[in-house]
Amino acid sequence: MSLKLAIGGKGGVGKTTVTALLARIFAHHNYKVIAIDADPVTNLAASLGIDDAQPITPIAELSDLIAERTGAKPGTMGGFFTLNPKVDDIPERFSRERDNVKLLVMGTVKKGGSGCICPESAMLKALMMHLVFHRDEIVIMDMEAGVEHLGRATSASVDALIIVVNPGARSRAAAIQIKKLATDIGIKRILILGNRVRGIEDEKLIQESLPDFQCIGFLPEMEEIINSDRQGQRPFDDISSVPDQLESIAQKLLSIKNS
């Protein structure tokens, strides 16, 4: 099944945990899944329960590979290098896997700003295009607060951007800003997922303050997640024990292709 999902939201709302749980639910239902950590604060591996004894080198920091594929040394700007490097082997060669979820850590371009025309950015853009256009899998991306890794070339083919929000005012304000940025680059389906809600009042607050959003569902504050975070473990090690609300959200996302 080919389904491309981006998960965004203000830092601290729980988007990485949500991304990891959805990825594991999809894999539990026998779908092929690639999880992409595109947040500079790389926590998706821990949320997936991938052993950190061997740290994962982000794709943007694979200097030798980038130089080989682009024809230019990373960290340089200008000059000549290929804008379409070979990337189709990267998901298999450089991913880490657990429970049938492949993880790729993108990393960030540290020089030249977000508009940098440099070998690293060419590599990341080519890889993102490959993942969105050419992979016949569920690709679920943990984005930074905005949607900086998604350019206009790939954004229109993303099936949905899910913005994770909690009842806090700053989280809701961030959702409005993220939606504007996402709309500007062509993402067509933008949803909100209410997280850490404590009851009907929180649900009403989110819905009434974000009336222009389609809400895909709400998740309560979960003791399992709080306790797992304290212990440095992934929550719901038995993924079949996730709350019904989360399973329902996963099923709604799987149905997007047919809607």
* Assembly state (oligomeric): single chain
Which structural category fits the helices and strands?
alpha/beta
| pLDDT < 50 runs, ≥5 residues | none
CATH class: Alpha Beta
Overall mean pLDDT stands at 90
Number of domains: 1
Distance between the termini: 15 Å
Question: Numbering strands along the chain, what is their spatial order in the largest sheet?
Answer: 3-4-2-5-1-6-7-8
Using only C-alpha atoms, the radius of gyration works out to 18 Å
Q: Looking at CATH, which topology would you report?
A: Rossmann fold
What name goes with the CATH superfamily? P-loop containing nucleotide triphosphate hydrolases
What percentage of the residues does DSSP assign to strands (E)? 15-25%
- Summarize the main sheet: 8 strands, mixed
Order of helices and strands: EHEHHHEEHEHEHEHEHH
Task: Compute the number of helices.
Answer: 10
CATH architectural grouping? 3-Layer(aba) Sandwich
Let me know the number of strands. Answer: 8
